Amino acid sequence: MDYKDTNLEKRTQDAMCVNESRLEHKWYHNIKYIIVGTLFGIIFVKSEVISWFRIQEMFRLQSFHMYGIIGSAVLVGLLSVWLIKRFHIKTIYGEPISISPKKFNKGQIYGGLIFGFGWAITGACPGPLYAQIGTGATVIIVTLLSAIAGTWLYGYLKERLPH
Length: 163
Hints:
Elements: H1 6-13, H2 31-46, H3 52-59, H4 65-87, H5 106-122, H6 129-134, H7 140-157
Pfam families: DUF6691 (PF20398)
Keywords: Membrane, Transmembrane, Transmembrane helix
Organism: Sphingobacterium chuzhouense
């Protein structure tokens, strides 16, 4: 991979995926993602990760439940990235995985604060929004539409924001 490619340089600084596959697949190839997403949603529901009350307990420092789940996810992520780097693991199709170094900037603080405030106010992290809607909490559609609007707004203003 040539890092002198300006498009790749921009993408690596912007935390966008630089590991896009160049392989062409049939339409049914993506069914596995629906299956895994459904299973992931079931796990979210059963572990109470989507529970507004659990999220409020976390932000009020009243329960370790969510911190334990988030902490274990961070540990699994750290271990996974270390293994990928250490053993030069490739995708299941044999393509190399490239993990670019990221520089810290003040925009991450602002984004984290906005994300945290939104999470605390709505009681919904973007990950389980679909699972919450699937369990019948249709009011979360407002949160989903707000998340989509916020993502669009960021894309529109990205060049003018601190990075």
